[in-house]
Amino acid sequence: MEVVYLDNAATSFPKPEAALEAMMRYQREIGGSPGRSGHRLSIEAGRIVHETREVLARLFNIDDPLQIVFTKNATEALNIALVGLLKPGDHVITTGMEHNAVMRPLRFLASRGVDLSIVPCSDRGELDPDDIRAAFRTNTRAVVMTHASNVTGTIMPVQEIGLLTRERVDTVLCVDAAQTAGALPIDVAAMGVDLLAFTGHKSLYGPQGTGGLYIRKGLDKKIAPLMRGGTGSRSEFEEQPDFMPDKYECGTPNTVGLAGLSAGAAYILEKGVEAVRDKEDALTRLFLDRLHALGEDVTIYGPRSAQDRISVISFKLRDITASDAALYLDEHWGIMCRPGLHCAPAAHRTIGTFPHGTVRFSFGFFNTEAHADLAAEALRQLVKR
Hints:
- The protein is 39% helix and 15% strand.
- It is α/β, with parallel strands linked by helices.
- It has two domains: 124 residues, Aspartate Aminotransferase, domain 1 (Alpha-Beta Complex), CATH 3.90.1150.10; 255 residues, Type I PLP-dependent aspartate aminotransferase-like (Major domain) (Aspartate Aminotransferase, domain 2, 3-Layer(aba) Sandwich).
- It is globular, with a radius of gyration of 21 Å.
- The two termini are 21 Å apart.
């Protein structure tokens, strides 16, 4: 039975051959630790790390690649940004569609004296920028929001929110781009993004254990590091370096992972983010049409139009639990998907599917129309049963 992988919102699969080759080349031919030695293999490892910054800077229109901090995932990046920036007495605004990577750090900070406002969204996961404007206070330090929901796929009005935060001298915009980096065009300058958290193992087609945080130049002076330790620089001092990116990058980096991330991001640049978006959008439209044909047997969540969502589709089947549906699809059709709450209970409360959750299909660049058709037929057979 062929495996039909429709869980790209969790982690993308397969990866481009170039990403696999880059990791094998590092392991077989380089293997050195970047910034920790002066020999040629260490220097070559350092070049890989720097080239990864440069590729990502081109992808996100970041002027200075050194403003990118490497992390093991978007969650770590968000913790650096939020825990390092927000202090007791600060006010922070977020939305009702956030992943726990945002909500859990914010709940922790709220327990330590940070004032938290959660702006509600519609039952399709849509956010009205005017509701963000209305939530501003004199002590609002940050707006933290997802670029697109991992539950409904809803694309959020980040650029409109960026215009609002630009009007305020002391308010920054922190964006969780875990679902959109590589899948949607991102221009941090045009969108007014001050902090961009991203992961490498989803639409950037790198391996797990890679990610990063873009910090607008100058803002790093106001964000304390989450960790401290060896950086390979300024080894004569026992205090943490205060310059980018060393301030936030402690310990030996995941160089083999960054080699894969560099190749994955370069693959996206070569194909063009717009081309990736167009293909995934076409698959989403096709599958939504097939789902609508099932009529009252299926409830679809999120925006009605594929244009307003990424290739993430959540749905419920009448009289069939999400977990039972996912198990049937795996065992009988080879379809890999994700049921449940998707680490985003706030989003499921917003769309009315808490606590049981939904079935989530998430298409990627390597999926085909045949995959969408097969998935639709599998659901048709399931509801017939």
